[in-house]
Q: What sequence folds into this?
């Protein structure tokens, strides 16, 4: 599907994502296909493919394209996975995941954002996304376990409920911290969890209603 923004999207993938070391062809293809400009307001469309996060209302943001690509690549998705996303937000990361994974379950606390994302993603015709409005810190237990979990807002520490909803050998990418945040990769092993700190980031806080 070609659109007026396709050249900007190609440039974004080449200069912001591939140039910084993202090499997974599935991730690069997804980033080159998903129309990021549809996930921001009319006023922000001109900035949709720039190298920065953008406001989407309700105090939330759509993440910088590179960070979306990096977080997706770290999960190592092959195409058959069931993925949980905590923090639907604009729905942009959701779409990128849906391009690669078999099924995407996405939770958003703010009803307005979830409904707007559902409208945009529905218009793009993704059949493999399920939505829930609620507290993401408790995960989506009914459909656990998950092959991968992506968290797009930062808690002070990794929520136990999310760890417990990972499959054995499942991978979770999550920003952790308050003043200083880092992206953390959590891998579930048979008897324990391994954590690896990856890079400093800046996300909005992950809000819990419990």
A:
């Amino acid at each position: 599907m070609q659109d007026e923004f396709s050249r900007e999207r190609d440039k974004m993938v080449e200069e912001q994502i591939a140039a910084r070391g993202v090499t997974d062809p599935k991730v690069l293809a997804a980033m080159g296909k998903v129309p990021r400009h549809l996930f921001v307001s009319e006023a922000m469309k001109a900035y949709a493919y720039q190298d920065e996060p953008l406001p989407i209302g309700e105090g939330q943001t759509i993440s910088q394209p590179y960070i979306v690509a990096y977080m997706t690549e770290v999960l190592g998705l092959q195409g058959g996975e069931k993925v949980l996303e905590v923090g639907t937000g604009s729905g942009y990361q959701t779409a990128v995941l849906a391009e690669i994974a078999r099924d995407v379950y996405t939770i958003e606390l703010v009803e307005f954002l979830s409904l707007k994302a559902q409208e945009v993603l529905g218009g793009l015709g993704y059949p493999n996304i399920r939505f829930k409005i609620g507290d993401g810190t408790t995960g989506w237990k009914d459909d656990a376990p998950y092959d991968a979990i992506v968290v797009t807002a930062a808690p002070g520490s990794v929520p136990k409920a999310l760890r417990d909803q990972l499959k054995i050998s499942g991978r979770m990418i999550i920003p952790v911290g308050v003043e200083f945040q880092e992206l953390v990769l959590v891998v579930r092993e048979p008897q324990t969890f391994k954590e690896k700190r990856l890079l400093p980031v800046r996300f909005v806080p992950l809000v819990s209603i419990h």
Notes: The helical segments are 6-17, 25-33, 65-74, 92-100, 111-124, 160-164. Strands lie at 54-57, 60-62, 82-86, 103-108, 129-133, 146-151, 166-176, 181-188, 193-201. The mean pLDDT is 94. Residues 52-201 form a domain with the Rossmann fold fold (CATH 3.40.50.150).
